[in-house]
Amino acid sequence: MDQYFVGWGTLSLINAGLAQGKNRRGFNWFILSLLIGPFATLILLFMDKHPS
Fold this sequence. Notes:
mainly alpha
């Protein structure tokens, strides 16, 4: 069961980095990823880069 939580946390960190690469707030996406996990990844993959 611990592996499940480690994987979910790792995915949240990856999503935060992906969000920052698209000029979005990494912390917000980290929290969102903790709640909805892989669905946040799909949302991020299809979002355009935010103009800075």
